[in-house]
Write a structure and sequence with these properties.
Layout: H1 5-15, H2 25-38, H3 42-47, E1 53-54, E2 59-60, H4 62-69, H5 81-91, H6 95-110, H7 120-127, H8 132-149
């Protein structure tokens, strides 16, 4: 039986312990970043197919934003142990890490046809307040995460 996307997102928000984050704008930004990151995992990608573009702070989806404003409980889909471990990893990230990793992966995903010509660190440093070295460390972390969890950009 096909589970509605709203139910899946609701279950993921609950599973990540982010239900209280639905109450604030900052919290919803955190959830949007987490859902975007989950969507990079092959199993969650099949379930979370949102049209995404980036805003200054986080990847953005109009349909996801609307969904979060009226989200209730959900039904957790059956996923592998590896997908659950990735979900737990994402759930454990702080807001800054969620935003930075989501932004890095979005830029990498958007530029995948010509990755050699795209300097993710320079792009992010143009609109983020963090120093380039901190962004570079997040970038290195992102590459490790991509490999460890088999993310598809």
């Amino acid at each position: 039986m096909l589970v509605p996307k709203e139910k899946i997102v609701g279950a993921l928000v609950e599973k990540m312990g982010m239900k209280d984050d639905l109450k604030t704008t900052e919290g919803r930004l955190k959830i949007r970043s987490a859902i975007y990151l989950l969507g990079l995992h092959p199993e969650f990608k099949k379930l979370l197919n949102f049209r995404i573009w980036i805003l200054i702070r986080v990847p953005h989806s109009v349909s996801l934003s609307r969904m979060l404003s009226s989200l209730e409980g959900g039904e957790m889909p059956a996923v592998s142990e590896g997908a659950l471990k990735y979900l737990q990893f994402v759930a454990g990230l702080d807001s800054e890490s969620l935003e930075m990793l989501a932004s890095i992966f979005f830029i990498k995903q958007f530029s995948k046809n010509d990755p050699e010509r795209v300097d993710v660190v320079s792009i992010l440093s143009d609109f983020r307040v963090e120093p380039k070295e901190k962004i570079r460390e997040f970038y290195k972390q992102a590459l490790k995460i991509k490999k460890k969890y088999g993310l598809k950009l």
